[in-house]
Amino acid sequence: MLLCLFAAGVLVLSGLAALVTSGKPRLSVVVGSTGAGVGCVLAIIPAVRTLVLGGTETLRGAWNMPWGSFYLELDGLSAFFLVVICLVSGVASVYGAGYLAAWRGRKALGPVCFFYNVLVASMMTVVLARNGLLFLVAWEVMSLSSFFLVTFESERPGVREAGWTYLVATHLGTAFLLALFALLGQGAGSLDFDNFATFGKSAPHLAGLAFILAVVGFGTKAGFIPLHVWLPEAHPAAPSHVSAVMSGVMIKTGIYGLIRFILFLGPPPMWWGVALVAIGLTSGVLGVLFALAQHDLKRLLAYHSVENIGIITLGLGVGVIGISGGSATIAVLGFAGALLHVLNHALFKGLLFLGTGSVLHATHTGEIDHLGGLLRRMPWTGMTFLVGCVAIVGLPPLNGFVSEFLIYFGAFKGVGTSGPLTVVACLGVIGGLALIGGLAAACFAKAFGIVFLGEPRSVHAQEARESRHLGMLSAMVILAVACVLFGLLGPLTVAGATPAIARAAGLDGATTAAALAPAVTSLSGVILVAGILLIAAGSLLLLRFLLLKGRTVTEAGTWDCGYARPTVRMQYTASSFAQPLTTLFRMFLRTHRTIHMPDELFPKEAAVSTETPDAFRRKVYQPVFRFVLTQLERVRQIQHGHLQLYVLYIAVALLILLLWKMR
Amino acid sequence: MNAWTDAIVVLVALTNLALLGSSRLSVCIRVVAIQGIFFGLAAVLLRAEPLTMDLGLVALASVVMKGIVFPALLLRTARNVNIRREVEPFVGFTTSLFIGLGLLGIALWIGSQLPSAANPTGSLVIPLALFTVMVGLFTIASRKKAISQVLGYLTMENGIFAFGVTVVGGIPVLVELGVLMDVFVAVFVMCIATWHISREFDHIDVDQLNALKG
Amino acid sequence: MAVESLISVVLALVLAPLFLGVINRVKAIFAGRTGQPLLQTYYDLAKLLRKGAVYSRTTTWVFRAGPTVALAATLAALVVMPLGGTPALVSFPGDLVLFAYLLGLGRFFTVVAALDTGSSFEGMGASREVQFAAVAEPALLLGLAALAVRTHSLSLSGIFAGPAGSVTLQAWIQMGPIVLLVGGAFLIVFLAENARIPVDDPNTHLELTMIHEVMVLDHSGPDFAFIQYGGALKHWVLGALVVGCLLPVHPASALWAPAVSVAEMLTLAVVVGIIESVMARLRLVSVPHLLAGALTLSVVALVLVIY
Amino acid sequence: MDAGLLIWFQVVVPVLVGAACLLMQSPRTVLASVAGGSVVMAASAAGAAWAVHALGPIHAVGEWFLLDALSAYHLVLLEIVFCLSSFYAWRYFGHEQEAGHFDLRIARRFGALWFGAAASMTLVLVSNNLGILWVSVEATTLLTAFLICLHVTPSSLEAMWKYLIMCSVGVAFAFIGTLLVGASAGPARLSGSDALLWTRLSAAAGNLDPTLLKMGFIFLLVGYGTKAGLAPMHGWLPDAHSQAPAPVSAVFSGFLLNSALYCIMRYVPIVESGTGHVGWALDILTVFGLVSILIAAGFIVFQRDAKRLLAYSSVEHMGIIALGLGLGGFGTFAAMFHAANHSICKSVGFFSAGRLGQMYGTHDITKMKGVLRTAPVWGGGFFVSLLALIGVAPFAIFMSEFQILRTALDTGSIVALVLFLAGTSIVFVGALRHAVSVAWEPPDVHIEPEHAGVLDYVLVVLPLAALLALGLYLPDFVSGTFAQAARVIGGAP
Q: Mind listing the pLDDT tens digit for each residue in A19-63?
């Protein structure tokens, strides 16, 4: 625990150092990212120890603030999230050292290092805090620092808007959290979580309200649809290694909060689980659909974060259903799936964002339809990106499959039980996961295929080169390897996560382990099959090699079906690739298509362009904002500059008060 | 409760209505001055207890101030800013008169509602004071010229003065003088401000001072 | 692991190409033609394996790896697939999910390999493939879910070859409608995944309406052989699902199981041949509707199972 | 020595310095003596506050002057704001003098009025006699009026006139209220001057005439509320704040409003115990608070003038303080806390806005852009203070607002909680939009980058750092001060 504090200290101090040395960009970046790396390594040690050895470490200190206390605790759940945070943030900081070099001399790099380290430190505090006030402060610092990171390239037009959207969204979310904390700590002397824990018993009639507040408050951070609007804005705006951390780790603090606070609200009724499943389905399916319709790489990934949060929420829903249904197995499986997916998504989404960063770094565009053929030019980025794609689609034998498998497993068990509501919800989970899987496969086939394969569609892509910076490459490779390992070592991961799962399901370790046992055996079965798969693939490759040895292997142009002059422009683009599916689901997407038909005898040019803006932003939020604005516009009429009327206001106020209060 | 006070009270009512009804600025100024004098006298006459030294002092001071100093100041300013004489109300004079009568009614009603503690002597003075305050307020709100707003403010002060004298037995002299001092400074400042305004805008129509809004 | 399962797997590996041969022969008979020899697929494979290869300059290692991975995935899927009413080589609770996702893996690499050529045709095929798969996958998994609930087993072997409650001829009598519905769904999925009529026409070439064939235009030599063989094997694996539902024969003695499985598969081949002969290929836009139909069948089956 | 002398010192020093300013020969000396005098006042105020802390309430001139925990706290607050503003004035008018807008005549007038205002505000705080209280409030109005139009321009005159009339009228009502409260002392057998002594009244609060007391409080609330800028009597506030020179706006927003609220605070306990502690007065305060928050929110969203934006935010924050008072109990403590945070933060806001205005030649937000690049120090000050004002953690305002919010929920006033959250959220959304564009949008015209001196850094960094520190750690003596002040009003933390 002290090590965690020390790590946080290192982070903050190195951040300050980077800020001070801002004059010398090279130095400040080195200082900042080194500090971040060291801090993460330091903090991950106690976390892993807690996960392996179990037990909890507590640290209580006084804090001169009403209801506040400096109360930290490292239990299984916190430790698990701490591992996720440190793993991705550390790697991303290594990457960032190289990525930021591009701005050297054009921008002050001290602040971005500072805020990055503060962000990491605050995330650690969020998962460790056991006092409401401390949690809130850390939470807000987290939001604020990430806001400054999002607005790093403030000279780019969209970025300011994105930053505004982000901070507004997260603050409105916090408003709900404030209410929630006030509610949970009602009348209590201090806002320690220990006092919250009695809430379920003391005020069960308010538990539902608290649950809703928690879902909205934490859901905004996590990016539940329709609270996700900030996500597709903020992630593309931020520097890539920051997007990796935000999308991979930061939004997970919302999930953490949700799990942590559901525990306070006493035994959950069935409808909470069903509600979570519904949220998960909406976020998952709509998220992947909107991702499919995007042709900016980072926006696409951002929407996939929404989708994966949806998957995680499906897991949570299954878990809660299990608890309320009194089935330890289902509960444990649900939470296990959710938590493991938190970890896995952090890994592959971090990897994908880093890869995107390299692409941007090399081509200066994230527009998928302008890229292509990058695999030849950037082999490392390409290979790792492919690994990320396979992982995020959830295909065996990579890590994405493990967590989705657990959720499936729980859902199948749930279908087996009685209780129509449970069954329907679990069927929703199964069907939803299958649909999401299929669509995600389509989306990433598109992302990888169009960006890295085929011929370059623009001169940028033509001239792309792999970055020389060792930090960037190694970061991507590390994450890719992690994706493979966590996939092949599924049972071990589950075993490691058991304390967290137990904490989340509110069970003791033994029960949890027992309930997890069948799933673990199945996972070892999966590994067996994966082994067979790899052996088969290996031997087939060998066979292929032997067959082709000594035979004529020639190169030719792609078969062009008899076209006279095929050009790279004729390749399928991201938009055309996704078109069948976007048309299939047009009722949700409402894609705008603008077409210039070729006309005249000798048509000069024709063009078609599609864009899919966020339906909720346009259909829900903008109208609401407009309404509020018009109402406020009315209020402004009272201030029209005429002194006489101001004086009358005084008299009127007086009169009203007299009539109101003197009766 | 003696004949003197009733007479004064009625006269005050008349002054208020005159203020509302008259269109000439100089007249208004004088009317307010007279009103001030009346109230100064009332302060002496209304007391149940015998006339003390400092009460007399206060009464005298207020009479001097309101009867002589303020009118002089205001008339001088009015001359300096050489405005057209009309008062230029938002609300016409006759309408103002009727409104004034309405206000009188309201004031009497409120006076009847007041608990006895507020109105030991049970005289008409309290409603009249309130009436004066209302009229002052109405003047501020309904007239355009800066000076007439100053007049409105003075009228309010008159009313409040009377109110104070009746309601609270013996406000400490220091406070009274402080208040008087304040009023004096206020009028003084307002006059200077008026002069500045007339110099900047070459008019003192307050309703045209509406550049700042929103 | 039982020896008969191993035999069935070996038989599957050996006879998979025959499946296509049978289909073609049936179609020929219906068309009144002599038709190609029954073993034509074997000849093709042999010829391809003997050839060298031509690669597009555009392509990378992804293009070369695609067919191998696809075939490997199909093999892995075969390992967890019970054949002829005997448990699969490997079986564990939840392997049905793995099964579905292994097919997904193969598809993903086929698609990516197709995109690697940069040809608009193959891009088109890839795009259609993923579109249909996205709809087919829920149908498959929900159908399996229905069976899983009905048979209280989370493993394919438990469902199709398990001791009790599994889909056997006797059980068929009781849970007929469910199995019928799920079987129908699986049949549609089978046709879609294997690019058969009415979803796709394997015999046409370079036609804008093609899906699978157009994705593999640029492959040649051993790679193409892998693709062909993998396709045949995929018929066998998915076919096993269909017959598992519609012809759930469980031989008295496990030793007959391999024979039974082969017989079932060949019957299915004949049925497919008949379907292909009597039906026309659907318009592309209506393919999703067909698959949605499969999804509906699965859901209805589930409803029946639950109530 | 007699502790009462401390009070005298508080009042007399500014008067003397102000008088001295009239005799000075150069603007520089005036500005220097302004800064110096403020330091002396701050020091003596600190001494007085310490004395109160040590010896308890101090009296002088019989009972006419009183310095208890509440007034001591406000005295310290006043001196903090006044001292900061004085040093800022040194810089600000220094720049103006270079531009040739600040001659000796203006300088003398500024010095005299500046200290006159300080003296009268101090008098407000120390007077135990409610009559004198009123007199000194009116005096602040008259003395500060000409500070608004230090540079005579049409708009500054307009602002000044509105300020003068509205506050005079409003405060006149407050006098009626004072009289009524005095009259209500009849049953309590308080005769003559005692009837207006706060100590006597609050001692005998139990048996005052409730009807008169209530009526009096309503008049007082409306009257002093006008001066405090509570909606809907806030009409003068944005005009005055936007037209006055930045240092003056800072003092206006940083303390003038608080001094008016202070007067209301004085009456709250009397009225509450006079009406039997049923929260009669608190309800009114709550309503005024909420109305102010919501109305201010509307104007902040559409505001284009930086200083008007800050002014409306003052209306909002006065509303929040009133809300805290109205909620009572812990809310009173939170209100004290919030008052301090707001005064400090708002001063920095006006400092920065004023300096940026000098650089850009306008206060129009749509023209004042990219300040973080052109003026890192003052631009940063403006941006950060704006963020702090809209309640971004970890600045102290977040804490005090959360405390008020939680009190609202604990006292079960859900409506207040919802409206409060809604209002502050609207403000957040609106103000943040301005803040972002001001901070980062590329400026249309070329602006000479600032050359910031040490004093600039101190004036920006020191208060904001203090705000940050208070948000993260509330030292015992600070919270103790708030608590004692709150106890005077009857709030128990």
A: 988 888 889 999 999 999 999 999 999 999 999 988 889 999 989
Of A401, A445, A536, the CB nearest to C72: A536
Quick check: A91 and A350 in contact, CB under 8 A? Answer: yes
CB A109, CB A28: distance < 8 Å: yes
Judged by average pLDDT, the poorest of A174-188, A452-466, B34-48, D16-30 is B34-48
CA distances, B200 to each of A164, A232, B194, D154 (Å): 43, 55, 10, 6
Distance between CA atoms of residues C137 and A442, nearest Å: 12
Dihedral sign for Cα atoms in the order A241, A247, A252, A253 = positive
Please list every residue in chain A whose beta carbon sits closer than 8 Å to the beta carbon of residue D235: 639, 643, 646, 649
Asked if A376 and C60 count as a contact pair (C-beta separation under 8 A), the reply is yes
- What subunits make at least 3 CB pairs under 8 angstroms with B? A, D
A161 CA: distance to closest CA in chain B (Å): 25
A567 to chain B, any CB pair closer than 8 A? The answer is no
Query: How confident is the model over D45-88, as pLDDT tens digits?
Result: 999 999 998 888 888 877 889 999 999 999 999 999 999 999 99
The structural domains of chain A, with segments of one domain joined by +, span 268-539, 574-611, 616-661
> How many domains does one find in chain D?
3
- The chains found to touch D (3+ Cβ pairs under 8 angstroms) are A, B
Please check whether residue B214 lies inside any domain of the structure. Answer: no
D333 neighbors D486 (Cβ within 8 angstroms): yes
The last residue of one of the domains, among D278, D298, D328, is: D278
Q: Is the peptide bond before D442 cis (omega within 30 degrees of 0)?
A: no
Interface probe for B, chosen from A632, A638, A644, A663 (most Cβ of B below 10 Å), is A644
A-D Cβ pairs (cutoff 8 Å, strict): 148
Q: Which residues does chain B have within 8 Å of residue D209's beta carbon, measured at their own beta carbons?
A: 115, 117-118
Chain B touches chain C, with at least 3 Cβ pairs below 8 Å, answer no
- Going by pLDDT thresholds of 50, 70 and 90, the confidence category of residue B175 is confident
Residue C1 has pLDDT above 60, yes or no: no
Contact between C56 and A559 using a beta-carbon 8 Å cutoff: yes
A to B CB pairs, distance under 8 Å:
31
Please tell me whether residues D109 and D159 are part of one structural domain. no
Nearest to A441 among C104, C128, C149 (CB): C104
To the nearest whole Å, the CA of A634 is away from the closest chain C CA by 50
Q: Are residues D361 and D253 in the same domain?
A: no
Contact check, Cβ <8 Å, C149/A415: yes
Residues B65-75: tens digit of each pLDDT: 888 899 999 99
Among the listed ranges A6-10, A282-286, A552-556, C130-134, which one has the minimum average pLDDT value? A552-556
Question: Do D391 and D263 fall within a single domain?
Answer: no
- Kindly give, in sequence order, each residue whose CB lies less than 8 Å from that of residue B198, ignoring residues fewer than 6 positions away: B80, B81, B83, B204
Gap between the terminal Cα atoms of chain A: 62
d(C-alpha A523, C-alpha C92), whole Å: 9
Planar angle of CA A108, A114, A119, nearest 5 degrees: 135
Cβ separation of B169 and D192 shorter than 8 Å?
yes
Chain A: closest CA distance from residue D299 (Å): 6
CB contact under 8 A, A556 and C121: no
Q: What is the span of the domain harbouring residue D217? A: 144-278
> pLDDT of C116-151, one tens digit each?
988 888 888 899 999 999 989 999 999 999 888 888
The pLDDT, as a whole number, for residue D192 is 66
Main-chain dihedrals φ then ψ at residue D350, nearest 5 degrees: -70, -40
- Residue B171 inside a domain? The answer is yes
- ipTM of the assembly? 0.91
Touching partners of C (3+ C-beta pairs < 8 Å): A
Residue D134: inside a domain, yes or no? no
Q: Are residues D59 and D111 in the same domain?
A: yes
CB contact, 8 Å: B115 with chain A?
A: no
Tell me the whole-structure pTM to 2 decimals.
0.93
> Does residue B213 lie within any of the structural domains?
no
